[in-house]
Inverse folding.
């Protein structure tokens, strides 16, 4: 049988999804692997631990569908973006990977902006400590010996694919998150590399995500003996593909620990990255404390209670949470803590109870996502908003988001691992183009639209009060 | 020989007997239950309050007598604003709306249009607010009108007349009806006439005669003496509004000692020798308690309420334990405690609460501390406002249940930038008992016995600069948020769930 194997290397665990030709999917997740924080603000992982987790989980996933040597498996890996993997000439990691969550490379960001003042215009984004380039510059400055032993600078999914195929390559979605890719040409920016004296030979060639990633040559797994790979995409793009974002104007929202608005554009706009399709770009606007805001409130108000039970009462709170507003800036968004609008509950009266506070948090996150979307000019879809992530299992939250945007919603169980499998499918010609990938069949829900008027009114107040509390506004 | 102070509070009644040195002999207390018969109404059964007071006086009188301290005089400290219509025997015709009862809103709005808040404040010394008795009376049904109603009584004169006193009310409680002319120390004909436009029957039903605090108003009748367990002809003396009684009981003194009552609404009470100027536009209330002795009250509409709300939100049963676990370091978060309108400094019913500066690493202990700090910021602002108008506050003595916890008192003191010294005991009941003693010549009103004090909580030296900045930020945040809050519907404190 023909099988698509999608692997998603997350920050805490990996997930593997097997898709059969009838599109039946089965998934399995690995146990969590650790993040080490040798210093405050550092976040690192051992790439070899990823490899072991992926090998084992792939084995379980293939066994679970009875895959064997006679099956044709196509593998595509997606994974955490931005994180820096350095590989020496023997194919061993030169040091632990520096993760996207690492905050050490702040001085390097300043250096990049000084040397390449138009960096944001080239790459689509200003340099952030999360990005690969500042991390690489940090290693060059603080660990020059390690860099001198390094042959290849890789992204996590590319390292994992190299383990199977021995071929060094990346794709333009992941590459656009390094801070070194020219977003318009989809090639490494020679302006950036030369201004910062980066040896282009360290970087992998950039390919189309659906290009052939090579044959699997180094796996003990019998079902992978004849397997092929696709180059694959970064995890946010796999999410976007699994949500069916293949046309300009499509939009999805991921209600995870952080909340992310994914919007598709047909030209490179500020804040965008390269979409899997050559003529599209993807905007990613994140609110760091999305679902985390809810967990935070639970930990303060009702430590130990399950999130589901904690949020269940919010159904009985009225839309608008009795005029209570929540500003979800719990990570000190937009600069250092206190530099932007603060995290806050505003409009409290003694009649507010826990359920109102919970509802206000759900609404506040939705308001901020809308504000991000408006501020960045991300085009809105006309027909449906796709909601994903753990928060999308909360019907009330979905209704609130739908009401705040004034667009019907649907949810989907397809995730980044499924998106990776689809990359493999397009690469193998299961479908001739991204647009012909079978669309989501999940029902479209209009129940959130009843509260559009009141939520719009509250949203306007929210916007004004955020502006008023932003020091530099 | 002893005197008894009876405190008629919103949450309960307490009777305390004191000896002739002002030392407590015995105390007894009972809870009162507030009822909410309909939205916005909050009432108490005055007859039940009377019965409760009688049984508590009987209990402490018996104990005092058994120690050889026969009761010689009784006076009351009472919550203000509550009012009840009575028949010609002084019996309650209706349940008594208390301060939080919101039925007076329409009448207070009408008064504002007709008369203006400034004029009302000028005459009565009190801000224009629906909590005052006059506006509740205007909303009354037929039981509140003649011929059924033969008089209106505050809880204090309702109780004392039933014990045999002449219908008399002290100046401070008279002021809390909203009809007392504080400069003339008499009922205000002008206010009566203005209120009479909406409630034409109001001027026809008399209030009790007004007298200074500590004035003898009669003696216990034979019949009442039996119920109270005190000698016939025990003196009944005009007591005071609870904030005034707390001030006297805790040893307050113009220019040197003020009191900060930690209750449902925190309140700073400051004495002056004349009516203070420069407080127009604030919600400060001022009244004389004796000739040339004025008290000014500045409170937070939701002091203790805000803490109670926070405690209820966390679901922690033991409030004391929760508050005591406050973080020892100041957190980078600010609470505006205006869960039932702003404090009296701003007198802004549209004020709303806020918690600002939330971060993922904020702990519950830090948030708890922030709620306590809010009471301190409010006190700091009020002390600054008094100082700015040339009224010296002096030493501040903390009274009330919240004053005895050194951890929470210390946090408030640091946040306020004001040292707080706890006055030990039941300050309001003690104030009433001292006034009872004044009425029978046991005490000199200018030389009342002093109260025991606890250790002063001083502002932490290491955080003086931090809190000075935080108090400024606190005021700034109120101003920034004010225009947003004003667009919301006002929710009156009466909608506050029972605490």
């Amino acid at each position: 049988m023909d099988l698509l194997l999608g692997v998603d290397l997350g920050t805490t665990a990996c997930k593997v999804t097997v898709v059969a030709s009838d599109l039946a999917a089965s998934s399995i997740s690995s146990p969590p692997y650790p993040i080490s924080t040798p210093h405050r603000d550092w976040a690192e992982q051992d790439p070899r631990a990823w490899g072991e987790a992926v090998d084992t989980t792939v084995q379980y996933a293939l066994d679970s569908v009875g895959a064997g040597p006679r099956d044709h498996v196509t593998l595509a890996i997606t994974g955490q973006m931005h994180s820096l993997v350095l590989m020496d000439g023997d194919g061993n990691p030169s040091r632990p990977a520096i993760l996207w969550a690492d905050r050490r490379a702040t001085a390097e960001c300043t250096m990049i902006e000084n040397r390449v003042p138009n960096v944001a215009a080239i790459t689509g984004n200003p340099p952030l400590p999360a990005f690969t380039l500042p991390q690489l510059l940090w290693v060059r400055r603080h660990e020059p010996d390690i860099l001198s032993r390094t042959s290849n600078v890789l992204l996590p999914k590319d390292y994992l694919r190299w383990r199977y195929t021995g071929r060094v390559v990346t794709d333009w979605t992941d590459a656009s998150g390094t801070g070194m890719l020219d977003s318009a040409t989809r090639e490494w920016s020679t302006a950036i590399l030369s201004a910062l004296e980066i040896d282009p030979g360290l970087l992998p060639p950039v390919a189309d995500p659906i290009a052939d990633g090579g044959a699997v040559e180094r796996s003990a797994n019998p079902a992978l003996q004849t397997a092929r790979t696709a180059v694959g995409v970064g995890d946010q793009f796999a999410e976007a593909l699994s949500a069916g974002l293949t046309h300009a104007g499509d939009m999805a929202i991921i209600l995870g620990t952080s909340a992310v608005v994914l919007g598709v554009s047909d030209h490179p706009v500020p804040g965008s990255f390269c979409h899997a399709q050559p003529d599209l770009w993807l905007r990613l606007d994140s609110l760091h404390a999305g679902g985390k805001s809810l967990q935070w409130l639970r930990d303060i108000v009702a430590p130990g209670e399950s999130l589901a039970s904690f949020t269940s009462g919010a159904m009985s709170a009225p839309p608008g949470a009795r005029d209570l507003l929540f500003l979800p800036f719990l990570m000190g968004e937009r600069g250092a803590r206190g530099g932007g609008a603060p995290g806050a509950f505003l409009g409290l009266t003694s009649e507010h109870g826990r359920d109102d506070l919970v509802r206000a948090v759900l609404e506040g996150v939705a308001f901020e996502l809308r504000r991000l979307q408006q501020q960045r000019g991300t085009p809105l879809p006309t027909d449906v908003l796709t909601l994903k992530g753990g928060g999308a299992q909360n019907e009330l939250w979905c209704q609130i988001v739908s009401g705040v945007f004034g667009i019907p919603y649907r949810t989907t169980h397809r995730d980044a691992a499924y998106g990776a499998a689809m990359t493999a499918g397009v690469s193998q010609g299961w479908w001739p183009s991204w647009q012909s990938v079978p669309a989501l069949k999940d029902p479209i829900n209009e129940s959130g639209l009843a509260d559009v008027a009141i939520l719009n009114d509250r949203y306007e107040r929210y916007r004004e009060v955020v502006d008023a509390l932003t020091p530099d506004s | 020989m002893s005197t008894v102070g009876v405190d008629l509070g919103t949450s309960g009644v307490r009777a305390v007997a004191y000896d002739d040195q002002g030392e407590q002999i015995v105390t007894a207390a009972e809870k009162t239950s507030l009822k909410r018969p309909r939205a916005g109404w909050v009432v108490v059964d005055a007859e039940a309050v009377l019965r409760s007071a009688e049984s508590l006086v009987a209990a402490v009188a018996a104990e005092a007598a058994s120690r050889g301290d026969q009761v010689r005089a009784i006076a009351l400290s009472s919550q203000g604003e509550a009012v009840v219509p009575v028949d010609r025997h002084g019996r309650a015709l209706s349940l008594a709306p208390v301060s939080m009862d919101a039925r007076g809103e329409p009448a207070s709005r009408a008064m504002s249009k007709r008369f203006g808040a400034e004029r009302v404040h000028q005459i009565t010394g009190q801000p224009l607010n629906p909590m005052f008795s006059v506006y509740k009376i205007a909303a009354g049904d037929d039981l509140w009108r003649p011929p059924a109603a033969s008089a209106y009584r505050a809880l204090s004169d309702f109780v004392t007349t039933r014990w045999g006193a002449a219908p008399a009310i002290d100046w401070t409680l008279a002021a809390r009806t909203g009809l007392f002319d504080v400069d003339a120390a008499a009922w205000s004909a002008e206010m009566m006439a203005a209120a009479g436009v909406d409630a034409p029957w109001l001027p026809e039903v008399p209030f009790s005669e007004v007298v200074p605090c500590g004035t003898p108003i009669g003696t216990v009748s034979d019949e009442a003496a039996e119920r109270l367990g005190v000698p016939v002809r025990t003196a009944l003396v005009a007591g005071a509004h609870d904030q005034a009684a707390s001030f006297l009981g805790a040893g307050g003194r113009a220019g040197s000692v003020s009191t900060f009552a930690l209750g449902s609404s925190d309140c700073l009470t400051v004495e002056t020798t004349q009516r203070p100027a420069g407080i127009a536009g604030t919600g400060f209330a001022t009244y004389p308690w004796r000739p040339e002795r004025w008290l000014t009250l500045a409170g937070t509409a939701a002091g203790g309420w805000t803490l109670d709300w926070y405690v209820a939100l966390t679901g922690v049963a033991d409030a004391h334990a929760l508050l005591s676990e406050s973080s020892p370091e100041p957190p980078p978060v600010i609470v505006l405690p205006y869960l039932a309108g702003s404090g009296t400094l701003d007198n802004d019913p549209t004020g709303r609460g806020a918690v600002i500066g939330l971060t993922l690493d904020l702990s519950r202990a830090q948030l708890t501390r922030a709620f306590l700090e809010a009471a301190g910021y409010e006190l700091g602002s009020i002390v600054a406002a008094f100082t700015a108008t040339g009224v010296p506050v002096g030493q501040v003595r903390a009274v009330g249940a919240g004053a005895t916890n050194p951890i929470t008192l210390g946090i408030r003191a640091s946040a306020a930038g004001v040292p707080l010294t706890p006055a030990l005991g039941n300050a309001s009941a003690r104030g009433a008992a001292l006034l009872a003693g004044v009425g029978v010549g046991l005490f000199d009103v200018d030389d009342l016995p002093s109260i025991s004090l606890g250790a002063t909580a001083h502002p932490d030296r290491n955080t003086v600069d931090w809190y000075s900045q935080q108090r400024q930020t606190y005021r700034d945040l109120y101003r920034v948020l004010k225009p947003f809050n004003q667009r919301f519907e006002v929710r009156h404190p009466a909608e506050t769930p029972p605490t």
Observations:
- The radius of gyration of chain A is 22 Å.
- Chain A has two domains: 2-235, 247-411+443-473.
- Chain A has 15 helices and 22 strands.
